[in-house]
Amino acid sequence: MDKTINNKAWFLVLPVFLLVAFSAILPLMTVVNYSLQDTFGNNQFFWNGVGWFKELLDPSTDLGGRFLASLGRNLVFSAVILAIEVPLGIVVALSMPRGGWTVAFCLVTLALPLLIPWNVVGTIWQIFGRPDIGLLGYTLTSMGIDYNYVSNDVDAWVTVIVMDVWHWTSLVALLCYAGLKSIPDAYYQAAQIDGASRWAVFTAIQLPKMHRVLLIAVLLRFMDSFMIYTEPFVVTGGGPGNSTTFISIELVKIALGQFDLGKAAALSLVYNLIILIVCWVFYTIMTHAGTERRPAEGGA
Amino acid sequence: MARIDLVDLAQSYNGNDADIESFALKPVTMTWRQGGAYALLGPSGCGKTTLLNLISGILTPSRGKILFDGKDITQASTRERNIAQVFQFPVIYDTMTVGENLAFPLKNRGVPRAEIDKRVAEIARLLDLTPDLHRKATRLTADAKQKISLGRGLVRSDVAAVLFDEPLTVIDPELKWQLRSKLKALHRELDLTMIYVTHDQTEALTFADTVVVMHDGRVVQSGTPAELFDKPAHTFVGYFIGSPGMNILSADVKGREARIDGHTLTLAHSYDALPAGAKIEIGVRPEFVDVAAPGPGLLDANIERIDDLGRIRFARVRVGDVKFAARIPSGFSPSSSSIGLRFDPAHVHVYADSRLVEGA
Lengths: 300, 360
Description:
Chain A is an all-alpha fold. Chain A is built from 13 helices and two strands, in the order H-E-E-H-H-H-H-H-H-H-H-H-H-H-H. Chain A has helices at about 10-35, 50-55, 60-95, 100-110, 120-130, 135-140, 155-180, 185-195, 200-225, 230-235, 245-255, 260-290, 295-300, and strands at about 35-40, 45. In chain A, strand 1 (about 35-40) and strand 2 (about 45) form a beta hairpin. Chain B has helices at about 50-55, 80, 100-110, 115-125, 140-155, 175-190, 200-205, 225-230, 235-240, and strands at about 5-10, 25-30, 35-40, 65-70, 70, 85, 160-165, 195-200, 210-215, 220-225, 245-250, 250-260, 265-270, 280-285, 290, 300-310, 315-320, 320-330, 340-345, 350, 355. Chain B contains nine helices and 21 strands. In chain B, helix 3 packs across helix 4 (about 115-125) and helix 3 runs parallel beside helix 5. In chain B, about 40% of the residues are buried. The longest helix of chain B has 18 residues, at about 175-190.
């Protein structure tokens, strides 16, 4: 079969190539380049091979220790907020009205936190939680609860988690609500006829029908929470000590604080790879959750 | 299994105080026999589905009562009524296998495991679903999914009634016939009360012993297919059932005579007490009007076209401004477009304001 050769097509594709090259490939290659070298300033670079990567994965070195500790914090943080936001989002979506003017009211109210810029969210909670002038901090302190996110690790973590839940549960709820709205009434009527309990309706109809949007919600929330920087930076600055220092905060410290471009480049590459791999694993597991049993059952 | 009585049952979607003419279902009183096969027939939007949902309990009526075996269940939930219903589009539970789907209504009611397995196997056999029992229901075709929905409707042996809301819409014609005969067979075998909603007269007439015709929120006639054909109680039944539908002509009826367009037609009965001021029409099925050469005593008409249906030919004619269908007797071929119509007086009915008037 003869293919039509049309060289004009190159003129259409070329700008895209250039754009991608300048916006993604060149910066990425620069980072790869940095990650293999060491610098002592003055724009002088020395070849270091995979030295930084080795150090990164070795907990006994300073870089490795800091990286692995902050990676652990990141994983715990993501796991905790997913465990809270996904079920909570589903509950919120389920309890939303299905019709009438209240729907618009609920949607707008839910969307509000999503519209606030990250560092404003941080500032809001930073002030909200202060024991001297913040409503939350002051109330808790007057109730006799010893709460201080500046000095107590647990309080700092609770604050950062509650802040993230406040900021992002709406996203999960809105996605789930969209999923719920797409279920035809006939399903609920059939379940009523079949005598299904409320719980059976949830597990047999609503949850399976929300499967797709939940996948999107989990992916988005994982990526965002794993890359979290601004809010904890504004609220706790990574403290007290290093207790809320996540990878992104560590990265900024190394790159801009210490100006260790090689270490920072190696760290950001690994950081990037982790997010890609985890998302790929999530996606594969969740899209194949239903299909995996097919061959076995088909053969039965 | 139960006899179902509807007493002054009505449904309004605009509140109870709305004008009665705006009701989706105007007050109806009727009885559904235990073990009957009913078809609820009418065009889209005539209130068929509303009536069905009232019986199953998905809707609570604005007015009136529903009795199952004499017991008032108007306020009872769907679950308490023990009704099965199959919807227009297949509803299947995605995460379950075909077998689990069929077992679901029984499982929810706490039926013992052995009993469930027995019923599921039986229904799967009747619907040819046995080979698919262990497959995920999501991956089947629309036909098979609707068979699962039908199966879930039939799996409970103790239901008061099984309601079908146009269940064969998504099924292709070949399988439609098979499934309909299967449903009919199941009806005989299981002795269930079945109510089958449809807008397709063939479907209704082949499925049911009793066809209930609805029009504009009212039940206009309920009877056997033969009754609906021979003696439509309402002009709507006349032209909705039958192909082509009944001819309706306005006429001036006095005693045993009907005058149409200057022509006098002798009727089989005498109509002396017609309501004053009512719109009087006569209705006659095309099967009982013969086309003949123009002659004395025949109604003059002009042929517009001829529909040859194979065994029978119908002429589409015009009487004055009114369109009319009439049978062309075999062996007759009209020599010109101008012909005469011969009526069979025994099958000419008189309607006052669209309702059948019985002659003396």
